Amino acid sequence: MSKVSKRNIIAASVIGAFALGSSQIVSADTLKDLQKEEGKIHAAAAQSQKKINSIYEQTQELLAEYRQTIDETENLKVYNDHVARLVADQQAGLDSLQRQIDGIEETKQGVVPLMYRMIDALEQFIELDVPINYEARKARVAHLREIMGESNVSVSEQFRQVLEAYQIENEYGSKISSNQGKLEYNGKEISVDFFNLGRTALVALSLDQKTAWVWNNDSRAWEELGDSYLSSVVTAVKMAKKLVPIDLIKLPIKAAE
């Protein structure tokens, strides 16, 4: 081989070596760039995943709030329906009460004249009845007439007191009682112990227990009793005062007609 050929081969070899070395340097730089880009992609992907996770969590929270809101809405609807029924029931009660209030005036218009008639009838009855506690009973009627003219006394209270007076009158017919008082006889006023056996008998005994009288409702006057009744009247007064036990006694009782 000639010297020229050898030099050409060597030059070609040197040039090829330089070309190969240059190719390896270029390939290394490209790989690093690719690795950097891949790292950026991974970093971007990780960041995107964080955002996705955050959005997912927010979505789950919103979904939970939505479901809670739906449940609360249903509960509120049930409660509102319940309250509506209560309000309707209360309104019905108020309407009923209003109707009663509206009818009070009509009731008063009927009750007030009735009370006046009851007081008149009571007064007339006392005048015709056996005069047991006569003064107290007359005072009770006077009190009823007085409260009927007082505006600060309600109609219901007036009616209650009228009924109470009738109840007291009714009790006189079944009670045994005794009280001290004054008896007018032959123009004289005498202090006595009164005794009444219901409305069946009303007798009086002088405080010295020497004289007894009986009330005659037909003549509307007192009549003196004979000595045969005196001991019985004394015993009757003692029984009413609970000084002796209840026992059978003889009293002047008018036969039923």
Uncertain ranges: 6-23
SSE arrangement, N to C: HHHEEEEEH
Tell me how many strands there are: 5
Mean pLDDT value: 83
Put simply, the count of helices is 4
Distance between the termini: 187 Å
The radius of gyration is 60 Å
Sequence of strands across the biggest β-sheet: 1-2-3-4-5
Strand percentage: 5-15%
Helix content range of the residues, please?
Answer: 55-70%
Anisotropy-based shape: rod-shaped
Coarse structural class: alpha+beta
Major sheet details = 5 strands, antiparallel
Coiled coil: 56-107
Protein name: DUF3450 domain-containing protein
Signal peptide: 1-28
Keywords: Coiled coil, Signal
Explain this structure.
This protein has 257 residues and is an alpha+beta fold. Among the domains are: 86 residues, no CATH class; 82 residues, no CATH class. 67% of the residues lie in helices and 14% in strands. It contains four helices and five strands, in the order H-H-H-E-E-E-E-E-H. A five-stranded antiparallel beta sheet has the order 1-2-3-4-5, covered by helices on one side. A hairpin with a 3-residue loop joins strand 2 and strand 3. Helix 1 packs across helix 2 and helix 1 packs across helix 3. The longest helix has 126 residues.
Please write out the topology.
Layout: H1 3-128, H2 134-147, H3 155-172, E1 176-185, E2 188-197, E3 201-206, E4 212-216, E5 221-224, H4 227-240
Antiparallel strand pairs: 1-2, 2-3, 3-4, 4-5
Helix pairs in contact: 1-2, 1-3, 2-3
Protein name: DUF3450 domain-containing protein
Keywords: Coiled coil, Signal
Pfam families: DUF3450 (PF11932)
